[in-house]
Amino acid sequence: MELLFDFINHRNADLRLISEQTLDSILRHLMSELSSSRVVVVLMCEIKRNGAARSLTAAISRLAHVVKHIKPNRAGAIGVHLIVALLSIARRPEEAVQSALEKNLPSIFAVLGHELPSQRCDGAIALYELALENLELSGTANRAAAIIICQLSSFLPNILRKAFKQFSKNLALADDQNGKVGLVGTLNSLRLLWPIIMAHKTELDIDAIHNMIRDTLRCVYSNRSEVVVASLELLERLLFYIPQLQVSAFFPQLVTTPHGALLEDDIKSQLTIVSSSAYAASQLSSLRASPVDSVFDAPSPLTFGDCTSENDRPLELSPDTENADSEPRTGSSCAEDEEILDPLRHNDVFDELDVETRSLEAATASEASSCHMDGTAIPISLPPDISNASFITYTAVLLARRFLLADQCLRLIPDREARVSHKILAMNCLSSLALYLPNFFDIPLRPPGGLGVQCLRDIELFLCHDDDQLKAATITTIVAATQASSRSRSAPSTDSPWLFMKCVLECVRSRRAQSSRALLSALKTAGRVVYQSNLTDRICEFACENYRDNYFLLRVAVVEYLASIDWCVAESSSRCLPDDVINVYLRLLADEDPRVRKAAADNLPL
């Protein structure tokens, strides 16, 4: 078997292909004879050998396929051996090896990981620390490290706590200039870890979770596209867990966390030290020095102490300054011994001092401005002036102002100022937030609102955007906001019905596959809104017209929407299932794509 693995790395492509086919035949024969243990042993030996990249990736990928046949009583021991082997494999620089880890480790740990807590595995902590180091690498190695941390945290609670604490610190000290790659790795790892964090929410501090959310919102102000994308993807993931986050009393614009306050105070203290040094240098440069005691000289407000005092004694104001004119001036022995510089004769020394003072002042000013300037670096704290509401409303306004709306009525942020990919991710986040905001369309971008202040209803302008994915995300957001408004016990928003109607009619008119799929997918759970709008027949007809579309996901959306209609309560001209709908559904049950057939069979209303 080892010889076959060696030939898999041969430079001749035909020989590599024959070796892989032969290896697969032998493994299938062993599996058919119920010798799965022998197969696992063969593959683990090759993995622990850590040979050539092609041989190693072949062994890892095949282990992912046969791992489900491992006996439960042996899964723990095999998992320990795998972790020990990963300590050397994770250090390899080959992209193929890192890609194999990224792709296959989740399915492998899904079987082996459950037995790890019962095993004594000292290599797990070392593997976690190695993965933390790999988060500073870019590309596939970064993603593979995030997968390793996620898998270890899923089954080992002590590693989950370590990772949560470390990533909280990384986000609190987020730097997109010098630590961009590490910050992206942290955000991607948290995106994978967030379901696990929510599952163990009771074991973690809710305030620490809120601080992590606040720091994620800070990262969307980065001027690095990779950081913005990673932070928006993490934000999109965590917004699925809004009911579990206890955000009703969470105000992210208010910095109340000790760590954040200490961080801000530390920066302020550094600025104070720099500015005080600059002030002392400027005071020193303004001291008057003259080799001759002239009667025309004004009495100096500074007096030097005894020459026997220490050299580092600070200059002090004389207590007899007010009586300086009435008392005769007496020469000091210290003044006679010390050399007094004449600024006219030593002009170069004072010029250098002035230049240094000006450079210190300029550095202080630039550092102070960089800490609070939006769009150039991650700010210390979130802007408090855009909204005084709690997390859900504040986040919606922040995302709209940062990526979507120009803070002027009927004006959008141009694509040259905010990337379309960022807008799509921000709109996806808004669709999750809109489900919890009954007055979503009426929320102003600047408190307290009023005439001339742009509101979130202007997102409907994106229905005319050229990008289909952005238009689809806008449709999902409008439908979600309309659902929230219809569920509200208070007076519903007056803009919701006509914005929903405009969204549906624009989608029907454009006939774009992405938009049509987004509309039908969103309407699956919005039946009440459709029934109240008397649009059941129109949307049903629209869905039946798309069952032959080449885009298979649109055909799946058609199946799911048709199956979700409750004809008993729907405001439709038909009180029973129409014949056209039955014919379309039967055709989709016999669709050429197996994924469409499966969706039709799973959603078949019986």
Structural notes for this entry:
Helix content is about 60%, strand content about 0%. It is mostly helical. The protein has four domains: about 1-240, Alpha Horseshoe (Leucine-rich Repeat Variant); about 245-255 and about 390-530, no CATH class; about 260-285 and about 345-380; about 535-605, Leucine-rich Repeat Variant, CATH 1.25.10. A two-stranded antiparallel sheet has the order 1-2. Mean pLDDT is about 85; it is low at about 255-340, about 340-345 and about 350-375. It comes from Toxocara canis. This is Huntingtin.
Average pLDDT, rounded to a whole number, is: 83
**What structural category characterises the helix and strand content?**
mainly alpha
Tally of contiguous helical segments: 26
Largest sheet strand order: 1-2
Total strand segments? 2
Architecture of the largest domain, according to CATH? Alpha Horseshoe
The CATH homologous superfamily of the largest domain corresponds to Leucine-rich Repeat Variant
Can you tag this structure with a few keywords?
Leucine-rich Repeat Variant; single chain; 26 helices; 2 strands; two-stranded antiparallel sheet; mainly alpha; 4 domains; globular; ARM-type_fold; 606 residues; Huntingtin
Topology (SSEs and partners):
Blueprint (H helix, E strand, L loop, with lengths): L1 H7 L4 H20 L3 H14 L3 H14 L5 H18 L5 H18 L10 H12 L5 H16 L1 H16 L7 H20 L6 H14 L5 H14 L3 H4 L12 H28 L16 E2 L12 E2 L15 H5 L9 H24 L20 H14 L15 H15 L33 H20 L8 H15 L2 H11 L3 H6 L3 H10 L6 H13 L14 H11 L4 H9 L4
Antiparallel strand pairs: 1-2
Helix pairs in contact: 1-2, 1-4, 3-4, 3-5, 4-6, 5-6, 5-7, 6-8, 7-8, 8-9, 8-10, 9-10, 9-11, 10-12, 11-12, 12-18, 14-16, 17-18, 18-19, 19-20, 19-21, 21-24, 24-26
